[in-house]
Backbone:
């Protein structure tokens, strides 16, 4: 029996997902949570196999929560279930540790199959999201000149962003101000010739600058 916990702030969706999980053979809904803070506290007492996570939550975001869970509970598989399909959230969630990224329009039967896929070692991603990932990686090529290389400090900052940190938490990790982080981010964008964090992440991964 695969245990699945749910983090969703909308009660109707939360209850619907719980009914779907409990009504699917081989699955049980072990807990439902409205916030990531409640989920993290609950998982410390009752660890599920899979966590379905919304992104837009009151308080801590789903992406920030996934990063915390990935650090504390390495065996819990976090799958994003959201309405958002923009590049920034997709890459932030996957880099934070999500093993899958599904849109809420995913049919019920496909959602259950996707959870099974994750348990079996796969990385379920909605078709729309998969296309965005492919398109973003297709846009980038490694720079032809070594002068575009990032400094060790810039590489460390970029690695923090890939690991799911935002400007504020990266600043705390590096013991600098948020303004300093913004200053270095601008230089990273200029060197990589990109315009957003998701583009920087994609290009750095493609170039093998970070892991």
Residues:
């Amino acid at each position: 029996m695969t245990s699945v916990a749910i983090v969703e702030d909308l009660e109707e969706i939360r209850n619907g997902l719980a009914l779907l999980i409990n009504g699917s053979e081989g699955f049980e809904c072990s807990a439902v949570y409205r916030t990531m803070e409640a989920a993290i506290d609950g998982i410390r007492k009752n660890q599920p196999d899979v966590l379905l996570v919304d992104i837009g939550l009151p308080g801590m975001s789903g992406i920030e929560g996934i990063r915390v869970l990935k650090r504390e509970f390495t065996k819990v598989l976090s799958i994003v279930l959201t309405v958002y399909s923009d590049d920034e959230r997709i890459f932030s969630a996957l880099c934070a540790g999500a093993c899958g990224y599904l849109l809420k329009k995913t049919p019920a039967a496909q959602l259950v199959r996707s959870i099974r896929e994750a348990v079996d070692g796969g990385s379920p991603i909605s078709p729309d999201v998969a296309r965005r990932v492919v398109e973003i990686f297709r846009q980038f090529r490694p720079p032809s000149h070594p002068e575009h290389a990032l400094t060790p400090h810039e590489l460390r900052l970029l690695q923090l962003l890939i690991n799911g940190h935002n400007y504020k938490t990266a600043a705390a990790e590096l013991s600098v101000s948020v303004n300093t982080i913004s200053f270095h981010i601008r230089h990273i964008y200029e060197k990589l010739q990109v315009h957003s964090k998701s583009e920087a992440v994609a290009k750095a991964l493609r170039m093998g600058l970070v892991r």
Summary: The longest strand covers residues 27-33. Strands lie at 2-7, 27-33, 50-53, 77-82, 100-103. The mean pLDDT is 88. The domain at 2-136 is CATH 3.40.50.2300 (Rossmann fold).
